[in-house]
Design a protein that fits this description.
The chain has one helix spanning 3-9; strands spanning 11-21, 25-37, 42-55, 61-77, 80-95, 101-116, 119-126, 141-148. The protein is mainly beta. It has one domain (3-148): Porin.
Length: 149
């Protein structure tokens, strides 16, 4: 067996996604990722992220976010996963009133997820969250949903 094929036997591909629709709000996000399993309990990898948000409330806006992250996953028991993820996103927010925003935003998440088969779901907390500066979220606590194959 070659070293290259042995490497890819330990790689899982997948990621997360989100679709949200409200009366004045819609969002779509896709985060494909690849995780290398160093053991049955520990894996680490890279993820890319794209998010589209359409807000029709008081200030009509369209937001595009894109970037990447580095993540580590630890499973102390087969049904529980602890995650750490550093994310860096470029945010382009376009208002119809011409007050456009373009900036980078960092996040450092610590999460706890329930795992069943190839699916994990839970919550993650952004320790870098700043309520005044954050464009991507209104809370430091966010849901997380991942699928890996």
């Amino acid at each position: 067996m070659s070293n290259k094929s042995a490497f890819f036997e330990n790689v899982r591909f997948g990621g997360g996604f989100n679709i949200g629709v409200g009366s004045n709000y819609s969002t779509f996000s896709l985060s494909p990722s690849a995780i290398y399993d160093f053991s049955d309990k520990f894996g680490a990898g890279l993820s890319m992220t794209y998010v589209y948000v359409k807000n029709k409330s008081i200030q009509n806006s369209t937001t595009n976010l894109y970037g990447g992250s580095i993540l580590a996953l630890f499973k102390p028991v087969y049904y529980l996963q602890i995650s750490t993820e550093y994310e860096n996103l470029k945010i382009n927010q376009n208002y119809y009133s011409a007050n456009n925003i373009s900036q980078w935003q960092n996040a450092l998440y610590f999460g706890l997820e329930y795992v069943t088969g190839n699916i994990s779901m839970g919550l993650r907390y952004d320790v870098l969250f700043d309520k005044v500066k954050s464009i991507t979220s209104s809370s430091a606590l966010n849901p997380v949903f991942r699928i890996y194959f």
